[in-house]
Specification:
- This is Protein kinase.
- It comes from Solicola gregarius.
- Pfam families: PK_Tyr_Ser-Thr (PF07714).
- The chain is α+β, with helices and mostly antiparallel strands.
- Helix content is 38%, strand content 11%.
- The strands form 5 sheets. The protein has a 6-stranded antiparallel sheet with strand order 1-2-3-4-6-5, with helices on one face. The chain has a 3-stranded antiparallel sheet with strand order 7-9-10. Strands 8-11 form a two-stranded antiparallel ribbon.
- α10 packs across α11 and α14 crosses α16.
Length: 525
């Protein structure tokens, strides 16, 4: 079976789950992978999408998280009904002693869509909104109104979770973080898409129930999506990636600065989006249950200031043709890019085209950067030459002086001994940085870059460097000038290190090994 790097759950084509035969992969997120499926018994819906949540090959903590997500999906499907929500057909459990990777997986069988709003946004090449942007917003707004009117909060509204059906209608999907309100709020796990989590999320207190979530959380995400749709893809918070934009959101939460609404948007649309993105949750929460009415009230308002009123979406054929063209263009570009890259570039940091251990043709010898400053990798250090350049490049992406090439190399040496094909199915960790695939997807920004893989050394090292850079800003109760605490946080979690106020006893040998490698690898100061 060919493994798709970075996928939370890999399922071979033709695999049977209940009455469903699994087909081609559709998408993968942090905690699950979705596949097309066909029903083989001739009963009920003939096609579906099957979301596989990981099974037994997880740590106890990961398993608890997955079970919680599955439980929330079941509860939401049993209690909330709306034509604007993706319907769940059934929930199945996999029992397969012959495949430990799939044994114990939970499978959520649901309606299959044609595409997602993320793919629509990714296909915008000229920074103009899609022709049915207002209709799509109206459908999403109605879906959220139905969720909130039922007394629930979705909790994870994002472009990936808004699906476009064959007739062009949009439906809201993915209810793994959804929760029923108990009074004014509910509790959900501290998870979510960085680009769509509200200002208050970054400082929200966490206890054993999770974090508080209100409908205002969904309203915020709607505001971000509304701005992206109407502006032709632009985010309301500046930045080249979700983490940079999240920094702008935190600045906005603290000071009121950092939000940038496109000046070309007509004033009524800007006002609606600005209200959805109010820093005060109660101010934007007042929109809950009224979003669809607010959007419909603006249906005759031009999207851009000074433009004519938008055409009514009466001609569905034009809209569908546009979406199909976007999908074909995106697929063509991806295919050409993949073929061109493999044909023209010999990259020592790319994953092998043949299985680990099989001989392949060698590319050109890598250029080894000269060691010139404290923290660089010493010339005689026992670090493979083919990885020195990428380690140095990724470390230098971080402005924190403690994240040096030698430090990143020390963590890699401790984790895998620089073995990019290393696997530990028992712990669910893989690759040169020994990432758990689900966690790797978050730090590799897999929502924007679905082809990134734990078995690609460049991808894994980049994600590791980003984590080590980030950890310096969140660790508490430890010396700020010692990077080894960040390595231990990577091996466990930042919360574990902060709560203990140092290195827990069971990780002291790991910390000592990182420290030893750091001394051996670094140009001395």
């Amino acid at each position: 079976m060919t493994r798709r790097g970075g996928w939370a759950v890999v399922v071979p084509e033709g695999y049977r789950v209940g009455p469903w035969r699994i087909g081609t992969p559709i998408a993968s997120g942090c905690w699950g992978s979705v596949y097309a499926a066909e029903r083989v018994d001739g009963e009920g819906p003939s096609i579906a999408a099957c979301k596989f949540l990981p099974g037994n090959a997880l740590t106890p903590a990961q398993r608890a998280t997955v079970e919680d997500l599955a439980s929330r999906e079941r509860a939401f499907g049993a209690n909330v009904r709306s034509e604007h929500l993706i319907q769940t057909y059934e929930v199945l459990d996999v029992a397969d002693e012959d495949d430990k990777h799939l044994d114990g997986c939970t499978v959520i069988v649901m309606e299959r869509a044609r595409t997602s709003l993320r793919e629509v946004l990714d296909g915008l090449t000229d920074q103009t909104p899609p022709p049915d942007a207002v209709a799509m917003l109206t459908g999403l707004a109605q879906a959220l109104d139905d969720v909130h009117d039922a007394g629930w909060v979705h909790g994870d509204v994002s472009a990936s979770n808004v699906l476009v059906m064959d007739d062009g209608d949009v439906r809201l999907a993915d209810f793994g973080l959804s929760a029923e309100l108990d009074g004014t709020h509910a509790y959900i796990p501290q998870l979510g898409s960085f680009d769509y989590t509200p200002a208050e999320w970054w400082s929200a207190p966490v206890d054993d129930r999770g974090v508080e979530a209100r409908p205002s959380r969904d309203v915020w995400a709607f505001g971000v999506l509304a701005h992206r749709l109407l502006s032709g893809g632009h985010h309301p918070f500046p930045g080249c990636d979700p983490r940079t934009r999240a920094t702008a959101v935190r600045e906005y939460a603290a000071t009121g600065d950092g939000m940038h609404l496109e000046p070309t948007l007509a004033a009524p649309w800007r006002e609606l989006i600005a209200t959805c993105l109010e820093r005060d949750p109660s101010a934007r929460g007042a929109l809950a249950g009224t979003l669809a009415d607010r959007v419909r009230a603006l249906s005759d308002v031009p999207i851009e200031a000074g433009s004519a009123a938008p055409d009514r979406p009466a001609d569905r054929l034009r809209t569908l043709r546009w979406h199909i063209a976007v999908g074909v263009a995106a697929a063509t570009v991806a295919a050409v890019a993949a073929v061109g890259a493999s044909a023209l570039v010999s990259d020592p940091d790319s994953p092998p085209s043949s299985p680990p251990g099989e001989r392949t043709a060698r590319g050109p010898e890598p250029i080894v950067p000269a060691a010139s400053a404290p923290g660089d990798i010493a010339t005689d250090a026992d670090v493979p030459a083919r990885y020195r350049s990428v380690i140095t490049k990724m470390a230098h992406r971080c402005a924190d002086p403690l994240v040096t090439p030698a430090f990143v190399a020390a963590v890699l040496a401790t984790e895998s001994g620089f073995d990019r094909a290393k696997r530990s199915p028992q712990t669910g960790e893989y690759g040169i940085a020994m990432w758990t695939p689900a966690i790797f997807q978050v730090w590799a920004k897999a929502e924007e870059h679905p082809k990134r893989s734990v078995f690609n050394a460049r991808d894994s090292i980049r994600a590791l460097s980003d984590y080590l850079c980030w950890a310096g800003g969140v660790l508490e109760n430890v010396p700020v000038n010692d990077p080894v605490y960040r390595a231990v946080a990577y091996r466990t979690s930042d919360k574990t290190v902060s709560d203990f106020g140092g290195v827990p006893p069971e990780y002291r040998a790991y910390a000592a090994e990182v420290r030893r490698h750091l001394r051996e690898f670094a140009v001395p100061s």
